[in-house]
Design brief:
six-stranded antiparallel sheet
Length: about 150
C-alpha cells in the first residue's frame, strides 16, 4: 500500500483531509460523500470554488448515479479525462456545472465494502496515473476507517 502523506493522515476532519489531498495531487476541487442509513451518499466535505448550484445537486447522490454513485456501486475508481466532453454516461449534468475537466472518484472502502466516495478534479484535462489512483484509494480507505 502506498505511503499516505502525513498531512492527510493527521487531518482532524474530512474537509482538512480533502484540502491536504488537493494540495498533494495539485488538484483544484474535491468532494467527500459518505453512505448513510438511508442508502444514499451524503455530501460531507467540498472544496472551495464549487458553484453553489453544483453543490446543491451533489448534496445527496443515489448509489449508481454519477461518478460518486458509480464508484460506490462498482467498488472501483471512476475517471473522466474531461467531464465536459464525457460521453460514457458516467458523468451527470450537474458535474458539468463545476467547469472542471479531469476528474476521479474512488470508493472509500472499509472491510472491503464501499462506505463513501472521495473525488478530486482539475480545471484542465487530466488522466490519473496508476500510482496516483493507488494512493488515492489508500487515502480513501484510511479516511473511511478514521471517519466512517
Amino acid at each position: 500500500m502506498p505511503a499516505i502523506p502525513e498531512s492527510i493522515q493527521s487531518a482532524a476532519t474530512l474537509a482538512d483531509a480533502l484540502e491536504a489531498t488537493l494540495a498533494h495531487f495539485a488538484a483544484d476541487s474535491g468532494t467527500v460523500h459518505m453512505l448513510e442509513a438511508d442508502g444514499v451518499l451524503h455530501l460531507k466535505a467540498a472544496s472551495r470554488g464549487i458553484p453553489e448550484v453544483a453543490i446543491e445537486r451533489f448534496r445527496l447522490i443515489p448509489i449508481g448515479k454519477g461518478m460518486a454513485g458509480l464508484a460506490v456501486e462498482r467498488g472501483v475508481p471512476v475517471t473522466a479525462c474531461n467531464i465536459q466532453t464525457d460521453v460514457t454516461g458516467d458523468v451527470r449534468p450537474g458535474a458539468k456545472l463545476t467547469g472542471l475537466e479531469g476528474a476521479i472518484v474512488v470508493p472509500m472502502l472499509r472491510d472491503g465494502k464501499a462506505v463513501g466516495a472521495y473525488g478530486i478534479a482539475n480545471r484542465e484535462e487530466r488522466t490519473f496515473t496508476t500510482e496516483e489512483i493507488d494512493l488515492l484509494l489508500a487515502i480513501a480507505s484510511h479516511l473511511a476507517a478514521k471517519h466512517g
